Amino acid sequence: MKRSLGLGLVALATLVIVPVAKGSPSLAQLQNIGTDIVQQVVRPEVKLELKAAKQVQTLGAQGKTQLSWQPLEGEATVQPLDVLRYTISSANAGEMAAKNLVISQAIPPQMTYVLATARGNDGVEITYSIDGGESFVAEPQVEVVQEDGTVTLEPAPAEAYTDIRWDFAQSLEPQVVVQVAYDLTVN
Fold first, then answer.
1. 46-84 pLDDT, tens per residue?
2. 3-state class of 18 per DSSP?
3. Domain segments of the chain: what residues?
4. Cross-strand bridge partners of residue 112
């Protein structure tokens, strides 16, 4: 009985060692499993933080209007025509670079995007959607029927914008923070 158990263990060890020693696909699978485990343990950890501020107009000492931004915290009250600035900070708190970082933000239906206010770090591509996030382009256009019945493409009005997207071409390295921002008007 002891002898057959010993022979069985030797045979099993031989089956495991021989494929590994010969560089067979078993070794490649073990290496891939190891790589997959490392990637799950050491991975990017992107954290997003959204802040809002309200545009405030004050009269300066010489009677000039000055604009500033008042942070909105807790339960803030806003009125129609107030301009709000949303800032999104994205930090990679992980141990490896975050590739293909894309930040998308829907524009609430009770607000209107202020044209040409979206901005971000150098190298970011900013695109917009006017169809609820189905497609994004740099300069959305709409079809407009002219008085003579012809159809022309014209820049989309601010009210048509539904989403904004920032696409970072470069990887977000560990401990690096990027910021994007945009302004909205309360309807």
1. 899 999 999 998 888 788 889 999 999 888 889 999 999
2. helix
3. 2-41, 46-186
4. 185
